[in-house]
Amino acid sequence: MSGFYQQSTIAAMRIPTRSMTIPLSLSLGWVPNSLENAIAGTWKSFEGTMSLERMDERLEATLVVSYTLQCDCEICGSLISYTRQFEATLVYLPFSLDPRKSRHVKLPQTVKDLERISHQVTLDEDQLDVGFYDNDTLDLSMVLTEAIVLDRPSLLACNEEDVVRVDEGECVSFPTEGQKNTHKPFANLPDFE
Ligand SMILES: [Zn+2]
């Protein structure tokens, strides 16, 4: 495998406009740590690709991954096996365009500045998850972590899709509205005339 991909960061301007594809696997140095940061557990298998494409300073990362890991159910603590495959596209803009950091950067001085900024952060980004990169560098391990975190269920538990409970027994469940009082303690009593 090319030594180039062993690095977990890439200079933003080195990303070609016609896109480049990085093969991902557990044997790639920075990948296991990036996965562990997304979901702590034993990663049994992982493979996929990350395709990067640049339009001026706007970077697009498209991930196609499949994996299996074992971890603890976040509700009952049972050992579970989670097998998942998904495709996701994340967009990254320069740190200086992050609206949350705007107090720390030079305010636009002219209408032209303003137009440039509003043009780069456009409404069509609403459909996509937008992040920001700093020091003109995209951190690939952060991109991978973010993609998995955005895709995973908010509670990784026995009863989720793509999850198999490894331990015997059942997950703890709590009665929800509409399912209450299915237990009728007097149902077996004979009717009295
Ligand atoms: Zn559980």
Overview of this structure, please?
With about 190 residues, this protein is an alpha+beta fold. It has one domain. About 15% of the residues lie in helices and about 35% in strands. It is built from three helices and eight strands. The strands form two sheets. Strands 2, 3, 4, 5, 6 and 8 form a six-stranded mixed β-sheet that branches. A two-stranded antiparallel sheet has the order 1-7. Helix 2 links the parallel strand 5 and strand 6. Helix 1 packs parallel to helix 3. The longest helix is centred in the C-terminal third of the chain and has 12 residues. The chain starts with 8 loop residues before the first strand and ends in a 28-residue tail after the last strand. The relative contact order is 0.19. The mean pLDDT is about 85. It binds zinc ion (ZN). The site of zinc ion has 7 residues, from loops.
Number of helices, counting only DSSP H or I runs of 4 residues or more? 3
Tell me the fraction of residues in β-strands, as a range: 25-35%
**Radius of gyration in whole Å, from Cα?**
23 Å
Provide the helix percentage.
10-25%
Strand runs, count: 8
What is the makeup of the main sheet? Answer: 6 strands, mixed
Shape: elongated
Q: How many domains comprise the coordinates?
A: 1
Q: Which cofactors or ions or other ligands sit in this model?
A: zinc ion
Quick summary:
This protein has 193 residues and is of the alpha+beta class.
Q: Could you name the key traits of this structure?
A:
six-stranded mixed beta sheet; elongated; 34% strand; 193 residues; binds zinc ion; alpha+beta; two-stranded antiparallel ribbon
